[in-house]
Amino acid sequence: MRGLFFSLLLFLIPGVSVFCGIFPDFEVKDRVLVKYRGREDVVIIPEALGINRIGERAFAGNMLKSVKIPVGVDVIEDRAFAGCSFLVEVFLPNTVSVIGYRAFFNCVVLETINMPYSLRSIEGGAFFNCRSIRAIDMPSTLRSIGPRAFSGCTGLASLRLSRRTRVGKQAFMGVPPDRISYKN
How far is the C-alpha of 3 from the C-alpha of 61, rounded, in Å? Predict the structure, then answer.
């Protein structure tokens, strides 16, 4: 009941920045998670926060190893997880439609990230230098991949995407062409 009351408060007081109370590690403003202040290496973002975006640099440079993003989040903003050099796995819900510019830039040990069916756009440099990602299967709903989105992903052994997906310049720079395949 207490969690429900707190969630309702987030919606009743627009523009209020909240980083105390039930979830002291999360700062939320206008349904955007603007900062994670915790020190946990495995983070499950509570659905009760009522967020729809992971804000710019919200987790940047953090020491986390794993993160699960709640249903309802539709945008991972620019540089949200940039420089998280210990981040190994990311679980995205089937509500994420946009992964922003350099969102996971330089997450050098990132191995696992699911690409949800709701995904429409991966912005430029989103996974730049994520050299530990091994395989990615892009959903057929993906419309565009920005410039250098996967540049430097030298560990990528398999990437599958639709022929209908628009691909920006040097999106896969450093990834051997024989590791990229197309599906209908």
Answer: 29
